[in-house]
Each structure stands twice: as C-alpha cells, then as structure tokens.
Amino acid sequence: MFDNMPLKTFLESVERQLAECSAEELRDVLRKMARQVPPAERRAFLKQIHDSRAATVVPQTAWEGLLDAIDDLEARLEKAMKSADEWMDRFGWEYEYEEDAVGPYQEFIEPLALLFERTALAFDHGEFALARQAYRRLFSLLDQEDDYGYHISLGDLTDLDQKDAVARYLRAIYQTEPPDRRPRVLYEEMRRFALAYRQLYGDAPLLKDFIQLSPDPLPDQEAFLRQWSAFLRRQNNLLADTWLCEAVRMVEGTAGLERLVRSKGHQRPHIYLDWFTALEEEGQYAQVLTEARLALQSLPDDLPIRAVIADYLCAAASILGDQESLLEGRWQAFVAMPELSRLLDLWEAVPSMEQRPHWMQRTIQNMQQPRSRKATLPPDDPPIPTLVYLKQPSPLFNELLAHARLLAGDLAAAHQAVARKPVLEEGNAVNAQTLVLAWLLVLLSGRERKDLPPNLEHFWRRTLQEIIVDDWMYDQHIQHELTQRTDHIYADYLAWGRASGFLHLEAADAEAYLAWCLDTARKRIEAIVSNQHRGIYDEAANLTVACAELLRLRGDDRAADELVAHIRERFHRYRAFQRELRSALARK
Description:
Layout: H1 7-19, H2 23-35, H3 42-54, H4 66-82, H5 84-91, H6 109-124, H7 128-143, H8 162-176, H9 182-192, H10 194-201, H11 207-211, H12 221-233, H13 238-264, H14 270-281, H15 285-298, H16 306-320, H17 323-336, H18 340-349, H19 356-367, H20 385-388, H21 397-407, H22 411-418, H23 432-445, H24 454-469, H25 476-500, H26 507-530, H27 537-553, H28 557-570, H29 575-586
Helix pairs in contact: 4-6, 4-7, 6-7, 7-8, 12-13, 13-14, 14-15, 14-16, 15-16, 16-17, 17-18, 18-19, 19-21, 21-22, 21-23, 22-23, 23-24, 23-26, 23-27, 24-25, 24-27, 26-27, 27-28, 27-29
C-alpha cells in the first residue's frame, strides 16, 4: 500500500520546499540523495536523472494527463477481467470461502487511489470540468465486475477518503451543470451512490457533504435550494424525503420541518424522523414525546415505520423519566414490527417480573391476529438494508412466537406448536422446535442458568445464538449483544420462575415433556448424522451429551450411559461424528 500522506499534501509540501531552495541548494540535495542510493540501485538512479532531463514534455501539474492515465488503467483492468478464467484456474480455490471481493484486482487499488488523489488536486485548483469527467470515469471503473463477481468497490480504497471523493464529484457536477438541470442531475447521481454510501457510513449522501468542502457558499445557493426543494416535493421515495428535509432545515430551520410534517407527514411518514432528530438535537424531548404520540395516533396501524417513530417516543420518555410512556412506546414498537429485540425491549420496560408474562400473552395475541403489511417505501427505492428494515418485519415469526410463549409461561402452547414439526428443516440448523427443546431441557434440569452442566449450557446458548444469526436484519455485533441479552433475560426469568413457583411442573407433565425431549433429540441426532450434515455434527454430539447430563441430574445414570452407548454404536462408522462425540464428552 502507498504512504498514508495524501498526494495533494505531499506534492504541495514538495513545491513549498522547492520554492525555498536555490539552484545550488537543489544540487546539494540531489548529491545527498545520490550518496544514500544502495550500490545495486545506482545505475537506475542515474537513468532516472537522464530520462527526466531528456523528457520532451514535463507535466506542469499533478492532473496533466489525468484522463490518459485513467484510460491506461481502464485498459489494464479490462484486460485483467478478460483473463479472469486463468486466475480462477490458478488461485480461485483459495478464495472460495473468502469475503474478499477484490480477488485478482488487488494490484489496481493503489493506482486507483492515486488517480482519485490527482483528481482531487484538479478539483482544488478549480478544474471542475476535468474533475467531474475524471471522477465519473473512476467511479465507472468501480462499477465493473468480472464473470465471477470480483470487483473493486469504493470501500476497498481504504487509504482514500471515500466520502470526500463522492462529495467532490457532486460539487463538480454542481459547478459545471447549467442551473436549470442541476436538481435532476444531482438527484440521479446522489441516488447512484446511496447503497455504497449506506454500507460505508450508515446514511445517505447529503448536500452538506459537498457544501462544506469549501468555506465559500455554493454559487446561486439560495436559488438552488428553492429549485431543489420544489423538485424533491415531486418525487415519491424515502431518499427524496431525506434530502427534502435537509433542504427545508437549511432554509427554514426546525420550524420549516414542522410545517412540512403538518402538510406531508401522513403521506410521507419518514419526514417525522428527520423532524424528531432535529428536535432531539435542540433538547426538545417533551415535544418529541408529544408529537411522536400524536403521529402514532394518526398513522395507519399497519405501517412498520411506526416502530421507528415509537423508538423516538421511547428515547424521549427515558430521558424524561416517564416510565408509563416508555412502556406504551415499547408496546407500539413491537406491534408495528414484531421482532426479538423489540420483544425484549417490551419485557424490560414492564416494571415488575410478575407482570411480564401477562405482557408476553398480549404479544402472542397480537401476533396471532391476521394483518396486512404496507410498505412505507415505494418500489423504486434502492435496496438499502436500513431502509428495507423499515418496511418489513422479522422473517423468524415462528421462533419469535416460541420465545413469547416460553416467556409467558405457556409451555403447553409452545410445545403443541412444535411437537409434530420436522426435527430438521432444510436450510435451518435450529428452529422454533429446537428452542422449545432447549428450554425444556434447561427447565427439567432443576438447575439455575449459571449452574447448568457444560453440554446443556452449550446447547442452550448455541440455540439462542443460531436463531438470532438466522435473522438477516442483525449485524454480527448486534447478534452477539442480542444473544447475551436474551440469555440474561431467560436466566433471570428462570430464577424468578423457580422461586415463585411460576415455572413449576407437575410430576406427570415433567415426565411427558422429558419423554418428548429425549425422543425429539434422538430423531434430530439421527437426522443430522444419517444425512451426513457434517457442518452440524458437533451439535448432534453436543445434544447427545446434554441429554445424558440431564438424565444424570435427574438421578438416572443408567439411562444416561445407555443413551450415549446407543448413539455411539448406532453411528460407529461415522468417524467425524465420533470425534465430535468424544469432544462433547470431554467438555467441562
């Protein structure tokens, strides 16, 4: 990789130092550099001096020949992509399971970044037309992809300020586009960058990004903002709403956002979010609480964006110490978008453990009601995960319903819903049945969460984690935190349930559940190993020993030994599984 000093900074520093030197001082500098050249590189150093003196054309600026340099790089990249088959035959197997999408094009990252730096210099010196053309062609290079899906993305240029590059390109468009065409052209280009921008920074490109590039205001800024607002009002998508709110706030402040909400909020509810953000920044939490409540009363019940509006209500309620409003907001958020994190939010907002199972029953009743789902986003919006999140609920409905039933103490309903389901669903290592199985094993152990034997603890924890991992709406960091949080809530619930008798099982029920657990576990283990699902052999071994641990805790050592012996003998030819079984037995 190249030095972290930006090219602009480097060249400007060189120019400043050269300007301070006389001709004789420059000769002394060159002599000192010559003395430091290693012996093996002396001929190359002399040739470099000779070639530099003999050059007929000496570039006067860093951006001279910029478009030709981009042409050369484009030709090289195109040639490399045509040779992708050869690279795949030689090295592709190394990348089969890698997330690296650059593949054979790593060598192009440094020259691409350098060309972006040269383009930035052209921009900084007022060469806006050149900068616009160069940026457009460089970004087009990033759009290219070979037949195997390998490409260079903006995010791969890690030594480049990507946000700054996009902002300069948009500013160059503004500077060179006729005023009557600016809104349309900028709108299309900003939409083009929306997905990559969200992935890198979590938000959309904004006007302020390129306005703040210079201390000077945009030419014709006031007239443009009026044109821009009028243009965006005619669009119908979330990105347009975001940019409209930004423009209105620039010109009219928070009061302008309020007027926009009053006139357009019901048709374009995302505007509420920008208004509430502005109010939060001004510390107007009481108004956020009031207005969010009014918004929830006025918007249709089946809009998932209600969940995000309810989040603003909850944030304000927390700051104001209004527990009743906080609980109201958590309920509204869950109803609007049923998912595990919101179920847990609701659980934690209920002031006492005794009341929490009742609220879980309410969630069950709500989830079982027929409902339609209206998208808050028109179909022409780009497929940005953050935006998709606003328009559809979690796909793991059965697992969520199982969580709610377990936390409501409705074991009979939770068991009945999964008892006759397949023990192994295609594409899912764990499911609602696995969750109920894991919870019943924990409950039947008679132990607190912290005192579970190692394989039972591992099976319970793994089940929680893998169900959460299956939900694509959570990134890896959130998945880990949500697993920790879910486990902690169940641990507290288990301790309270045992102490209060809420989770007490009659002997006959306990035996019936135990029989079902052992039968289901056996079928699951056999389905995994018999069908050679090697990736989850460890789970089958873990479940085998977890059931044996449960039997020992219940005083039936003989049944525990027979269970392990049966599974070991049943699959004695499956050496990979036998290794996992030995590991599980050795787990402490």
